[in-house]
Structures are given as structure tokens and as C-alpha cells.
Amino acid sequence: MSDNDAVSPERAVMIRLRARLAVVERAAWFGFQHAMRTQPAETEAYIASERARCAEGFAGPNWSKDLTPAERAMLGAEVDSGLAQLVADAKEDGTA
Length: 96
Description:
77% helix; mainly alpha; single chain; 96 residues
């Protein structure tokens, strides 16, 4: 076995975490698709509400206290973008 075939213990931890995230992401997508098929208006309203809640939460000092204000702003922007993209993807996929 060459060095290129081996996975270091540190990289193995990262790869396992990425795999877990991928599994959770796919399971969440399945649930979201189901919600968009069965209750599209309610699901979109819920996502809009969560976007507003997250924008307020990440803008203040009470969420993610371990992050700097700039880091919280970045995290908030990424979460908002991700939630918006979720709805757009569902519509593009024909789910909604």
C-alpha cells in the first residue's frame, strides 16, 4: 500500500464528518421535498419565517456567542442563502 492509498487518522475524522453531513443533508432534502409536495404554501411560509428568525438571531449577540460579529454575519448570510436556495431547488426540481 502506497502513501497515496492510506488515509491519515486526522483526514479520516474529517471524511467521516463529511459523510455524516451528507447523510443528514439527503434525509433533510427528502423531508423538505415531501413537505413541498403536500403543503407547498405552508412550507414556503415556514422557510420565510425561519429566514427572518435567523437573520434576527445571527445579527444579535445571543446566537453563536463563540463567533465574532463578522463571523456571525457571515454565518447568518450563509444560512439565509442556503434556505433561499432550498426553496429555489425544490421549485426547479418540480417538487413545488
